[in-house]
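Support request, please re-run this one:
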Amino acid sequence: MVPLEYSRQLDEMAKIQARNMAYFHKMAHVLPESGTPTLADRARHVGYSFGRLAENVAHDYPSAQSVVQGWMTSKGHRANILNSDVVETGIAIARSSSGGLYYCQVFGRRLSSL
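Re-run finished. Output below.
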């Protein structure tokens, strides 16, 4: 398996979602109350022309290491991490006003690379 490459745009997408989840105190892939409610909306917002996208989100894990362990024990999250159809990633953590941690990792492949 080839390691994922860092993408500034995917990192920005992850930051947007982590911050929105923290702001709204809600862990979800879709946040209708935000300005960029879906993963595709966030991709368009940052100018990421995608062929493939996936996203993992989490809430209230005590550390980045523990959230990755949690994702790796979840069939769907693990599939996103190990998906050979994606080649780039970005990740973010945001803290809510009540102190809760919200995590987001975005995976992608540019349309031009398909």
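Residues 14 and 104 are 5 Å apart (CA to CA). The two ends are 18 Å apart (CA to CA).
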